[in-house]
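Quick question about two entries, pasted in order.
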Amino acid sequence: MIVMSLAKKSILVVLILLFLDQLLKIWVKTHMVIGQEIPVFDHWFLIHFIENNGMAFGMELAGKTGKIILSLFRVIAVILIGWYISFLIRHKSPAGLVVAISFIFAGALGNIIDSAFYGMIFNDSYFHVARLFPPHGGYASFLHGKVVDMLYFPIIKGTFPAWFPVWRGQEFIFFRPVFNLSDSYITIGVFVILLFYRKFYGNPQHEEAKTSASGKDIADEDAKTP
């Protein structure tokens, strides 16, 4: 029987999640145009193709500056999350926690791939299906690509009643945001941590391990200094 180390399990989880995320995004990008919908389960689960500059569930920062800030933030976040996974593994933390953080890591990395490379390898998707590696180049430069979203669950549709403040008479949809697998990985990872590992972060041994690790890192740096 092959026993897989926790580090290898984490890497395998990340690779599988990234593969599924990118497979779906590339399929949507090369088979659909912006705004196109494909019903999956009646009217309450649709593949609805949109793109955004940014954050989870279609949120974004405006302008090119906002795009760069968001992309750099993502890169820094992924580096820190990767370091934290390594830290948890070194200190023999619960496997479920490591897997949950790996989900968050895969989600963040999946959207970085879109943002960093999709603008370079695809042409745009307006009024025509995008082409992978178009002969005349992509629609944007490095770190200026758009994130592909497609999962849409308008489970409940209705209208706000006349007595409802602000939104009276307007259309109501639950759940309105369109998202992708990467967004769902982040959400799943966070929910697992909140549901099952809150006590872990209140554990004095965990805090002591963090302090010890920080001290060890400083000592190692001092040892390397001539």
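Here is the second entry:
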Amino acid sequence: MKLAVFGATGGTGREIVAQALDAGHEVTVLVRDPARLSVKHNKLYLVIGDVLNLEKVEEALAGSEAVCCSLGNTANNPDFVVSDGTQNIIEVMKKQAIRRLVVVSALGVGDTRDRVSLSFKMLMKTVLRKAYEDKERQEQFVRESDLDWVIVRPGGLTNGSASGEYAFGMDASIGGGQVSRADVAAFVLQQLTDDTFLHQTPAIA
């Protein structure tokens, strides 16, 4: 499969890229700083640019069959870089007739707000307020699109190796436990061809 990955220099994004390449996919990534992407592979193609630049998004998506979006927000980014960037991705996907979009969001967004601890809710209102407002807006854009989307909401992320042992799905009992980025990446890649959670927001923890 020809896959485009956005947010490839983040922790989860790097795992998605590495695992996709290991699985034999051709992967195109849009990155601002190629030095932050340590993966080298003959099936990895780099587009240098910003997700807020529509022309660069078009270049990154050209010829792709599916898209993984693992964009994150940091203090140095514009307020709505994740949601505005995702809006650009959606626009170009429609233009290029690409259907499948798998987005990495976060537990605590939308109807999973009550599944996180009280202390984390306080962080969501303070330190993480900007990031969570951006994620809420991102999910809204994805839901309102007519694409074949899946929104994955992981719990607390760790740098552990892939274990294959995690809870996932729509059940409200899946709370804010930890999960490795490697396991999240594996689950995200499964959603590229599995319709079990099409137009749904499975949690993973």
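Reply: The chain has one domain: 2-204. The chain has a mean pLDDT of 90. Hope that helps.
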